[in-house]
Design goal:
Elements: H1 21-35, H2 41-48, H3 52-58, H4 67-76, H5 81-116, E1 121-126, E2 129-133
Antiparallel strand pairs: 1-2
Helix pairs in contact: 2-3, 2-4, 4-5
Length: 138
């Protein structure tokens, strides 16, 4: 099949880097767009009532899009309400994974702080809650 008359989909997107929740979610959004015929972001913007820039950034993998933007993106790709519900659950799982990763990073940071400040102690309340006791800047 020749490329004559074939609709272009704008500039090629750069690859999504990383393997975290945000990157995986962005690749999933891009996959959905491809399966829906690769509409341009301008076409999607007309359907979604979001700017084409916002829609493009939703799938660039740099930061997690908000739920409203995600669902607009999904609807602009032609998904029905059952599929939209599935994407909402996927978004919620990605958000939970991001929150867990942030808690892990924060706990690691607290442990490093404890090593630097011998008067500080980390108090683990439970697996997800902790705070510094006796912390003071030096």
């Amino acid at each position: 099949m020749s490329g004559a008359g074939k609709r272009t989909s704008g500039r090629p997107q750069s690859a999504v880097r990383g393997d975290g929740a945000t990157s995986r979610f962005a690749r999933a959004l891009r996959g959905l767009r491809e399966r829906s015929g690769t509409p341009t972001y301008r076409e999607m913007a007309r359907r979604a009532h979001f700017s084409y820039t916002a829609l493009s950034k939703a799938a660039d993998g740099r930061r997690m899009p908000g739920l409203e933007l995600t669902l607009a993106y999904v609807r602009a790709c032609g998904c029905d309400e059952r599929e939209v519900d599935q994407w909402q659950r996927l978004w919620q799982r990605a958000q939970a994974e991001l929150a867990q990763a942030l808690q892990t990073q924060a706990f690691a940071s607290l442990l490093r702080t404890r090593r630097r400040h011998d008067r500080a102690s980390v108090v683990l309340v439970d697996r997800e809650h902790f705070h510094l006791r006796g912390y003071r800047e030096v």
